[in-house]
Amino acid sequence: MSKNAAGARTGSEQALTLYQELRDAPGEGFDDAARRLNLTAAEREQCRAELAALGLIEPPAAGTAPVVVPPDTALLRLLQHERERLEHRLAETSRAHTTLETLAGPFLRSGTEPGSEVEVEIVEDPARIRRELAELTETVRASVHSMLTGSVRRDEMCLELDRDRERTARGVRVQAMYSHRVGQVPEMAQHLAERTALGVEVRLSAVVPMNMVLADENFALLPTDPHDPESAAILARGPGLVRSYRALYDYCWHAATPYGREEPGEHGGDGLSEQQRAALRMLASGIKDEQVARNLGVSLRTVSRLISELMQELDAASRFEAGVRAARLGLLDGEPYEPPA
């Protein structure tokens, strides 16, 4: 058992010892077990707060002993809580998407105010989609914002650079966002460097939610199914709708890393990379490895490697132990638990 500089047990070790005492003596009062371990009043309350925060004890009824919760039950409850939070967020996103579809349908009346006209069209022909993108080069006036979940096709790289050259020469602001894994492909890394040299703002993110192209806050092109880049496209025109997509893009953009400024594997203050943190939260929410791989745009082998790195970083011998340690460190909700002074 490790000790602090003075040779005394740390608060977490005291909490663990007290928890084991409570499990070994069912029905014993919390204060009685604490006194048997010679804990001070402050140490006792610190242990009580830590065990309660981890879900390892439940507040007792009047005059009864605390309910001791097995570690696996506490972890399952935590994972269920995280899953419910994720489902709640997904439900909110679904409601927002339904609202957008309604606004883009019969309830959207054009002409209610200047610039309120909106046109929405489902485009299934890939050639038509490419033509719409090509026309942007000639018609865009102020800005183009794009995000791409995968790599650019080799035969389209030169064409994209020609478009960048023409747009930036006219003073058009061009922003492009890709996943970190795309930036690790040598051919794509060279392409992104060439785009950056032409004045394109390029950023990398651990997760890119979908393919999207926005122009002048008046044009949007995105897939009907974000999980299937080959699906039909939604072609929207009109600032009333495109501004909503721009808000989503800006959120992702500010969370991404400028290309060339910082390595994607660089670790934050908690010792985890952005990609590792994203994988950890998805796994804690009950998402299977296959879906994690799709969301991150990586292979199952890479997900297995990420999990192995997480277990090593958290000094855990199993996924279960990694989940407990991640919860204690606040890696699942953004704020680490700090016992009261």
UniProtKB/TrEMBL annotation:
GO biological process: regulation of DNA-templated transcription
Top-rank lineage group of the source organism: Bacteria
GO molecular function: DNA binding
InterPro entries attached to this UniProt entry: Sig_transdc_resp-reg_C-effctor, TrmB-like, Tscrpt_reg_LuxR_C, WH-like_DNA-bd_sf
Alphabetical list of SUPFAM superfamilies matching this protein: C-terminal effector domain of the bipartite response regulators (SSF46894)
Residues in HTH luxR-type domain copies: 265-330
Stored PANTHER family: HTH-TYPE TRANSCRIPTIONAL REGULATOR TRMBL2 (PTHR34293:SF1)
Listed name of the protein: HTH luxR-type domain-containing protein
Record lineage: Bacteria, Bacillati, Actinomycetota, Actinomycetes, Kitasatosporales
